[in-house]
Amino acid sequence: MQLFRNFFFVLILFSSLWGCDTSSNQTKTVLDFIPEGTQKALKISQWETTQTDFLENPFLAQLPNEPFSEIMATHKALFRQLQFEGEILFTLEEKDSSSLFTLIAPQKNLSFASDSLQGFTSEKKTIGEAAIITWNGSQQTYYSSTKDSIYLLSNSEKNLQNILLGVTKKDPLFLKALKVKNTEALVYAEDLRDIAWDSTAVNLAANAAFELQLLPDGLMGNGVILANDSVPHWMHLFKNQVPQKIDAPKVIPAQASSAISLGISNLEILQKSLRTLKKDSLDLHPIFETISEIIQFKMNENNTIALKSLDIELSMENLAKYLSESGDYRGVTQYAFDGEISLFDPFYPILSPTNTIVVFTWDHFIIFSESQEDAEKIVTALENETVLAATTFYENAVTALPQSGSLTQYNLQEKSDGLLPFLLGSRDTTAKGFPLTITQLIYDRDFAHLNFVAKEASGQKVSAGLVNQIASVTLDHELLTPPQFFTNHYTYGKDIVVQDISNQLYLISANGKVLWKKTLDGPILGKINEVDILRNGKKQLAFATTHSLYILDRNGDAVAPFPKKFKDKITQPLSVFDYDNNRKYRFVITQGEKVYMYDRQAKSVDGFTFKKAGSKIVLPPQHIRIGNKDYIVIAEEKGTLNILSRTGKSRVTVNKTFSFSEIPIEKEGFEFVVITKDNSKVTISQNGKVSTQKLNVSNNYWFTILGTTKVTLDDNLMRINGKLTELPIGIYSPPQIFSVNRNTYVAITETEENKVYVFDKSGKLLSNFPVYGMGLIDLGDANKNKKLNMVVAGQNKELILYQSN
After folding, report:
1. Is residue 691 domain-shared with residue 734, that is, in the same domain?
2. Whether residues 374 and 270 fall in one domain
3. Model confidence pLDDT, tens digit, residues 659-698
4. pTM of this structure
5. Which residue pairs from 310-315 have beta carbons closer than 8 angstroms and sit at least 24 positions apart in sequence?
């Protein structure tokens, strides 16, 4: 619908440009009374509504010195008395720091008494055959007159006198743009010739004319910009260039603050145009023969350029002598760039200067970055698809815009600068609530189509719908264990714990700062447990290595009397039991077939009588509560399943043996569930009754339960409470279930492409997942802001923290 409106506006505009007769014998119209120095004009069909729209528009209200809004606010006391039915012209001229306006309307359109204005005294004088009435108020003075049945009202006596003497604006393009026959449209025309768009002497164009739609949640516009071929203008850069498909949003990170896209189709013509505009015998590098789009975006005050290539191999061959391979990041090869070559200088000032350090390719883009840090952030954004094209703001805005263009400018992060404020007579600013504005030019013969859109975010956060990498930490060595969250009892948020291959344990804050490192006597077995053995709300880390049981406080110090040392090898991860959730912990150590239980004083629990199994224990001992009964389950290598009471005595007799898999024993309803190596599901009642179901599944089967949520995985077929989710073909880690802020999530990692998927308990993939990550993850609310955070291993020594907004 919006594209049709644009086409219709341009059609009737050019019908007026080329099809109107302006001979002197015609009846005078409002266009014959426009002040000579007019720079901007509005053709208004609904005067009262337009005033309200300008003064209340949420975008215009944030544009500094937007001229029409300022004039309407300054002269509100007068304008509220004026009533018109039908079209009027509202013209503006900025002169000597003053804003001069003139209202021009057919006398027949007045629906107020023009010879009486409340709060003003009047006096009359004559200029030729016309009379000028001076209206004196307490703060403002105005001047009005009528000539040839046209009513005139201005705050400039000189302008009004000149109009009456016939000294008016004669610019045919400006005047004819206002002849658009559309009684509903708010038409905005402006003279751009005396307004600098950049730091050079070359202006963007001569004139602009567009239909302006003021909406409750922002604004939109469509029209044209025009230039005289005899005078250089920047819009001539795109003359004889075929508008190109715009792919910039696919490569612009959502964290960027601004971006611009240039479409090119003919290198030779582009080079000639640049030489004419810059009056310089410059040469463009041959690489641009294979380029259809030049994109520049700003992120962290640094500039990045992305070239969309028609033939990526040929483009890279053209660059080969300037590149030397410098490494890779997450599997993306990176190149150092020879700074002696200036590929992009000819495009200044449309493109800002860029000092390229790192070059890499992604899909059909060649990306030139000013720093290694920026390059890594861009790779992360591309991998995780946290790019402009993936945002809800872009999806909402792009429906109003064509998909091909000559020049497209994007402002993100609530910034409003460049073309849009320029066209609206304002300056660069911040527009709160407007995460994205887009301005687009599409060259067409001797003019360019103009489109722009600024839509409010409807109360959403500007980053809504994205998964952002908020921290990346490089450890001293490669990660050994999956990173985990650990509660910070000061902030009630989460810190991160992880061990590297040198057996160093790290505590890292939620902003990525390493708080401490501690060398342990070996690798941690299994997961780290979070405990409060002092029962004062302060959390500790509890875990086992092959010869020690550690309890560390949040400063990395051992909590006496720990660590407890063991001569014989510990063979299973530490089990921690808190039977009644009263923090009277039991710490269970497994050594082969032997089991040892300790209290928080590191003393042996004498009341626990189970000391030794009949064979090697193959899973960490587990505490399972069914109803009001506690069970301790211990699985043996020879197939025996011991189901014990708190004291270690047999509580359930199981007369069958099982071939235990790596899947932990689960509680389903009021029964125990064992998944065997031969993919049988064994259900054991509290009376010891055994039922076996042969599962028709692959060897990559997994089964896990948390509360009322059950998840199974069979190759790429995942079921959450029975609801099937078909994952892309791949090799997956075991699914994990998390409860965060009273919400349940299921996470799984594809281990070949290193993609992490997170689903809600209904099986719906969370927005903007998957993201990059390796292995098992942890989920939590790290900053206590009700936002979901994920910590996961990256490549080699890297740890990554994400936030879903």
Report:
1. no
2. yes
3. 999 999 999 999 999 999 999 999 999 999 999 999 999 9
4. 0.80
5. 310/364, 312/361, 312/364, 312/366, 314/290, 315/287, 315/290, 315/291, 315/366
